Amino acid sequence: IRATIEGLQGQMSPRMVAQRRGRKVADILPKAAEAQAQAPAEAAEA
């Protein structure tokens, strides 16, 4: 249980990552339209 808790505490939200890098959350996360466009291409590669 302790390892699980430590692992979850080590996870950072996109907001925290963006703040740490000095960027906006939108710069960190892919836009919904881009993610949908990439999903079929990734499925075709697999």
Describe the protein's architecture and organization:
The protein is mainly alpha-helical and 46 residues long. The protein has one domain (2-45). The protein contains four helices and no strands. The chain has helices at residues 2-10, 14-21, 25-28, 32-45. The longest helix has 14 residues, at 32-45. The mean pLDDT is 80.
Element-level helix/strand string: HHHH
- Beta-strand proportion: under 5%
Overall number of domains = 1
Structural class: mainly alpha
Count of individual beta strands: 0
Calculate the terminal CA-CA distance, rounded to whole Å. Answer: 35 Å
Net shape:
flat
Return the average pLDDT rounded to an integer.
80
Uncertain stretches of 5 or more adjacent residues: none
Largest sheet descriptor: none
The helix content is: over 70%
Question: What's the layout of helices and strands?
Answer:
Layout: H1 2-10, H2 14-21, H3 25-28, H4 32-45
Features:
46 residues, mainly alpha
The gist of it:
With 46 residues, this protein is an all-alpha fold. It is 76% helix and 0% strand.
